[in-house]
Amino acid sequence: MRAIMIREPGGPENLEWTEVPDPVPGPGEVLLDVAASAVNRADLLQRQGHYPPPPGASEILGLECSGTIAELGEGVTGWQVGDEVCALLAGGGYAEKVAVPAVQLLPVPGEVKLLAAAGLPEVACTVWSNVVMHAGLGEGDVLLVHGGAGGIGTHAIQVGKALGATVAVTAGTGDRLERCRQLGADIVINYREQDFVAELRKEAGGADVILDNMGAKYLGKNVDALATGGRLVVIGMQGGVKGELNIGKLLTKRASIAATGLRGRPVEEKGEIVAAVREQLWPLVERGSVRPVIDQVVSLGKAADAHRRLEEGGVFGKVLLAVS
Ligand SMILES: NC(=O)c1ccc[n+]([C@@H]2O[C@H](COP(=O)([O-])OP(=O)(O)OC[C@H]3O[C@@H](n4cnc5c(N)ncnc54)[C@H](OP(=O)(O)O)[C@@H]3O)[C@@H](O)[C@H]2O)c1
């Protein structure tokens, strides 16, 4: 098969579309003919040599894909050759074929096209596991989503609204804020020009749940933005890894902070998340309350262009990589 390989750690020019051996599905796995993959911010770090795959995972980039089942490994039940699916991957998505544990498969939901489904597994599993399974977002809660215009953010807005929350977002320009509003965001905050803590307090009091991509840079401000009993979930470190925490403020608010990563979790845990997504989030996608948000489709052989696009900024939603 052909796949995108990293010639050496560095810039997008080091991504090479080349022949590699086909993957072989092990017990409990299926082989997919990939229709499309999608770019994640973690892929940029992996390309630069800063985010190696977890033990046992493919060296090939790509944390999600859509495609058709070509072969069932030993012991796989509940799926057939020819089924159209999308999949959460630990790696290997930037390729014509990928082997994936069957528990990480999801059916292509409702009216969603096979190609577009490639951009759903990573955002769906990340948002659902953090905002709902961990932080317990409920109807009437206030959800603050940092980076509302990104892949994760555009999905989190829709999930928050579908669950009956008031959704506030931060984004970098007025145009992006307006597009977040069109997706359902109730409160939009320009992080370049406005103080998100003051804006959130003015508009909604405080946040019951915060989904944070910034890490250290926003740690103190996020604690200030939490409501009593609020839950801060950190999933990104775009603003660094070491911050200062005022435990007194956390204690007074009886608030909590968690940080989670999806990729390194054992297959069983990913399977539990995928099962919850299928049971509870997929019905929202099937009835159109939550849709894939696609900025651009690039052919997989030109993955370097897609990486440049994400690095330049200004992507709204996801950039997909189509195989054909
Ligand atoms: N832990 C996990 O399991 C997990 C899983 C998936 C993703 N992630 C992480 O989640 C984050 C978002 O992923 P993604 O796929 O949505 O990436 P993305 O599409 O590249 O979006 C990144 C977003 O960061 C925003 N941003 C930049 N500076 C900001 C600031 N100072 N304040 C608020 N927002 C700011 C950008 O907003 P503008 O473009 O509007 O400036 C952009 O929308 C990344 O850090 C990614 O690594 C973690």
TrEMBL record:
Entry keywords, A to Z: NADP, Oxidoreductase
Ranges of residues in domain Enoyl reductase (ER): 10-321
SUPFAM superfamilies reported for this sequence: GroES-like, NAD(P)-binding Rossmann-fold domains
InterPro entries, per database record: ADH-like_C, ADH-like_N, ER, GroES-like_sf, NAD(P)-bd_dom_sf, Quin_OxRdtase/zeta-crystal_CS, Quinone_OxRdtase_PIG3
PROSITE patterns: QOR_ZETA_CRYSTAL (PS01162)
CDD domains, sorted: p53_inducible_oxidoreductase
Gene Ontology MF: a single term: zinc ion binding
Protein name as it appears in the record: Putative PIG3 family NAD(P)H quinone oxidoreductase
Lineage of source species: Bacteria, Bacillati, Actinomycetota, Actinomycetes, Pseudonocardiales
